[in-house]
Design brief:
Radius of gyration: 20 Å
Structural class: alpha+beta
Pfam family, one: ATP-grasp
Shape: globular
Strand order of the largest sheet: 11-12-15-17-16
Number of strands: 17
InterPro entries: ATP-grasp, ATP-grasp_carboxylate-amine, ATP_grasp_subdomain_1, PreATP-grasp_dom_sf, PurK, PurK_C, PurT/PurK_preATP-grasp, Rudment_hybrid_motif
CATH architecture of the largest domain: 2-Layer Sandwich
Bound molecules: adenosine monophosphate
Pathway: Purine metabolism; IMP biosynthesis via de novo pathway; 5-amino-1-(5-phospho-D-ribosyl)imidazole-4-carboxylate from 5-amino-1-(5-phospho-D-ribosyl)imidazole (N5-CAIR route): step 1/2
CATH superfamily of the largest domain: ATP-grasp fold, B domain
Subunit structure: Homodimer.
CATH class of the largest domain: Alpha Beta
Distance between the termini: 38 Å
Number of helices: 12
Catalytic activity: 5-amino-1-(5-phospho-beta-D-ribosyl)imidazole + hydrogencarbonate + ATP = 5-carboxyamino-1-(5-phospho-D-ribosyl)imidazole + ADP + phosphate + 2 H(+)
Helix content: 25-40%
Length: about 350
């Protein structure tokens, strides 16, 4: 791939905060960005050069979008794969729709990762209420029932403490689902890896990710020793996944740190909330490195800028703390420009870098 010169246009499918931060990084490198999203409020469009507000399935719109973009990327994985595949026949799309298809389907994802030597939690496919009973027999409890598709931030999930919870879990999740054994872990962490168009890869030191109600609350780097011990193995697996997908751009894999080694949880074929600390905490942010990768540029240094970094999400009305946070020396406040505060909604984040 020859490098796209500055001034070229990057198309972004999706209008959320990830698109917003990709657009900012793209602007820094002299690129234009064009957001395509159906949402009434697109916070990505606030920092992008242009916006098309339309359904992803509108072929006339897609053809026009393809004609205006030099490369296209996506900022979330719950977009239908068909329009992305259609676009990929007309304009380079990175990461490719193959990454999207695998990451969208928990069953496909687990099988793919297990084939590459990774260890997901023991799982069984569940399509009917009767199949859930069979899966409980096989996997045991405690367990987690998850929708196969369209889950995020712990949504579309139900925990089963005992087999007696099956009815309630099925009522909550139902449909195409996967039952996973409940993993006993000491910590959660992620590998945020970037793969260039030429196959070059770099990855960031793994953050320790703490969740509240299934939503990321905080990421801390460097991670504590139980995570550091799994770093090499988890990064190598993420690299094998990226190579096998011929992935171009950021790929994030989430893991549980267990006594038996890193257990794979899920992957995201995109920049990730657990990588937001890289904006100030790393020499090159995940957003800039994503732009570099999809534009065919050399990847940037992923080293730390300080002794340590924490990133705290501002969820729901936590965003009301912004005046105090702004008054705090050294706190880097990011607000996503969302008009409406809702419980569980990611409204912003704050990053603190400890000096060396
Ligand atoms: P997910 O959306 O699949 O990443 O799940 C959201 C959160 O639920 C994870 O970050 C974990 O804290 C927890 N979780 C999910 N799956 C499991 C599991 N199999 N065992 C234990 N905890 C889990």
């Amino acid at each position: 791939m020859t490098a796209l010169p500055p001034g070229s246009t990057i198309g972004i499918l999706g209008g959320g905060q990830l698109g917003r931060m990709i657009a900012s990084a793209a602007a820094q490198l002299g690129y234009r960005t064009h957001v395509l999203a159906p949402d009434r409020e697109s916070v990505a469009a606030q920092t992008a050069s242009s916006l098309t507000r339309a359904d992803y399935h509108n072929r006339v719109v897609l053809a026009d979008f393809a004609a205006q973009c030099d490369v296209v990327t996506y900022e979330f994985e719950n977009i239908a794969a068909e329009p992305v595949e259609w676009l990929a026949e007309r304009v380079p799309v990175h990461p490719s729709p193959v990454s999207l298809r695998v990451a969208q389907d928990r069953l496909a994802e687990k099988a793919f990762v297990a084939d590459l030597g990774g260890t997901p939690a023991r799982w069984a496919a569940v399509g009917t209420r009767a199949a859930l009973d069979a899966a409980i027999e096989q996997i045991g409890t405690p367990a987690v029932l998850k929708t196969t598709r369209m889950g995020y931030d712990g949504k579309g999930q139900a925990r089963l403490g005992t087999p007696a919870d099956a009815d309630e879990a099925w009522a909550a999740v139902g449909g195409a689902a996967v039952l996973e054994a409940f993993v006993t872990f000491s910590h959660e962490f992620s590998i945020v890896l970037v793969r260039g168009a030429d196959g070059t890869m770099v990855s960031y030191p793994p953050p320790w990710n703490e969740h509240a109600d299934g939503i990321l609350a905080r990421s801390t780097v460097p991670a504590p020793p139980p995570i550091a011990a799994h770093w090499t193995e988890a990064a190598a697996l993420t690299g094998r996944i990226a190579d096998a997908l011929n992935h171009v751009g950021v790929l994030t894999c989430e893991f549980f740190a267990t006594a038996e080694g890193p257990v794979f949880n899920e992957m995201a074929p995109r920049v990730h909330n657990s990588g937001h600390w890289t904006i100030e905490g790393s020499v090159t942010s995940q957003f800039e490195n994503h732009v570099r990768a999809i534009c065919g540029l050399p990847l940037g240094d992923t080293g730390l800028t300080g002794a340590g970094v924490t990133m705290e999400n501002l969820i729901g009305d936590e965003v009301d703390r912004w005046p105090d946070l702004l008054a705090e020396a050294g706190a880097h406040v990011h607000l996503y420009g969302k008009r409406e505060v809702r419980a569980g909604r990611k409204m912003g984040h704050v990053t603190r870098v400890t000096r060396r």
